[in-house]
Predict the structure.
Amino acid sequence: MNLLNLTSEELRTEMSRLGLEKYRADQVFKWVSKGVTDPGRMGGVPARVMDALRENGVYAALPKVVRSQTSEHDGTVKCLMEMEDGVRVETVFMKYKYGNSVCISSQAGCRMGCVFCASGMNGLERSLTAGEMYGQILAIENETNEKISHVVVMGIGEPMDNYESLSAFLNIMNDPKGKNLSMRNITVSTSGLIPKIDRFGSDFPQVNLAISLHAVTDEERSALMPVNKAYPLKDLLEAVRRYTDKTHRRVTFEYTLIRGVNDDDEHLRKLAALLKGMLCHVNLIPLNKVRGKEYEPGRERTAQEFREELEKHGIPATVRRELGSDIDAACGQLRLSSDNK
Ligand code: SF4
């Protein structure tokens, strides 16, 4: 068992079951939260403790960084990480004025099939464990020699399709004996799995929620995002209203501008009408071109027009700053290119 999957309390229980002192669990947990997995570097932890854990099949292992690209423009670092069984995902480190943020993957591949996305092109390989999600953060901190202050679960995969691991991961990140990261500094994105959105609002009311919207009619959204056939727009927006009523937290709608698909005046008018009066914020994203897909990014001017018009309707909006534009920027592309080598 990789102990990255455990909260400090679970590690205490495990160590006590093995006849080890519970306070040793807190020491080990702390070292691991600093990215230290080599027992020889865990100062203050006797070798017998780590030996006993190892003999009982309990160990600490981080994903391996098999490839890393650093943007010369803005210092964004994109890593291809390999898990113990060889599956690979992407993790991205980004610098912002407010701190360092990491975008992690929740699954290797994705079964949601959004047509503009590189991550889902080959379907779902498997879901990640909580420890593999946590491990991406520790491994990228080691790789960049930086500490992170914010986490977004917005990389490869649909996090709500891996809800149990996601929940365990959030509790590990928030554990006061380890990273102790505020739930408010974590954002989880979903393509719109309504039952999980309802559950998430009850389980994690302080974690930020982002919804990948990308279209304003059921016909157009179903064509871009098959999940819309099961959970259509009207029901999705009702679920978001239930969520904001319960949590009083602003939801972010992600709207990727795709030229000729969702970026004309009519789309803008419908988008404003759909979201008017909601406790929300819109993040306008210029599409990252994916090799082998015909979709083109919306024009920069369009993004600014969308932002201004939405704000006139009282809907706060921003245009996402393009980070890492000189590296394999589209999510899933680095993993795909490694598969093709
Ligand atoms: S956009 Fe997100 S939900 Fe859709 S296929 Fe890509 S990874 Fe999956």
User: Anything to note?
Assistant: Residues 110, 112-114, 117, 119-120, 156-158, 191, 212 surround iron/sulfur cluster (CB under 6 Å). The chain has a mean pLDDT of 93. The chain is about 35% helix and 20% strand. The longest helix spans residues 130-144.
